[in-house]
């Protein structure tokens, strides 16, 4: 029987356009080759992957009280019944794609900064989550909830729920105050899921392996540290054992939310009771499939066995 999973954090709307025209000037209008409107945010990206993988989960999130909020609720209707509807616009991001596959995001404040600990408490069935894992995301975007992270950590601990944490990138950069806040979160985390640059910035060291060792020393006994390394794959540390899982060579079609999709694949495998190595491999495989398909897929098709007849 799988361990229960939950995700707590930001769901919002992404409006993606591109590629960025080189002749764009103020006061003018330009045509772009493609555009897309999609449910997103760390919660949205992870929830879509877990749904495709057939993984049961709970969600604590919120929306605004506008058409975007209604749309998100309809997309995630299985989980959105207990989400609070804030008296404001729903957060959205405009993503501008560049020819080199990089993207620039412009994000509104909107609803996500209003999610509170009391709202999270009402959205989740903590008894049903006992013995499971709760993934915390979007902390740097959700000031009200992150201010109450100590209370949330206590609540999760009371119900024997492990914390998985993806910090994301702070809007203000890695200031001393932000680093101190984030290190306080890490001390309560059982599965730290950060990308390589975030780890190096948080621990101010030149090598990612050193950052991972620094992290595990301040985390609970038996904790897992993951460094997501893009096309290089992912590295993991548990205790004193370091492993690396390379990523397959794929043609990247859409890398938005790749780290969130990795989290989904990794935690789904951990919940199934798979080994640490296998869980990292599952995260890499799920993310690699997602970024190389359009419409996005999360599960690789089964390998066709070659017939030996007639040979």
Question: What do these coordinates show?
Answer:
The chain has 311 residues and is of the alpha/beta class. It has a single domain (5-19, 35-291), classed as UDP-N-acetylmuramoyl-L-alanine:D-glutamate ligase (3-Layer(aba) Sandwich). It is built from 11 helices and 12 strands. The chain has an 8-stranded mixed β-sheet with strand order 4-1-7-8-9-10-11-12, with helices on both faces. A 4-stranded mixed β-sheet has the order 3-2-5-6. A hairpin with a 5-residue loop joins strand 10 and strand 11 (234-238). The radius of gyration is 20 Å and the shape is globular. Mean pLDDT is 93; it is low at 303-311.
What descriptive keywords fit this protein?
311 residues, alpha/beta, UDP-N-acetylmuramoyl-L-alanine:D-glutamate ligase, 12 strands, 35% helix, globular, disordered C terminus
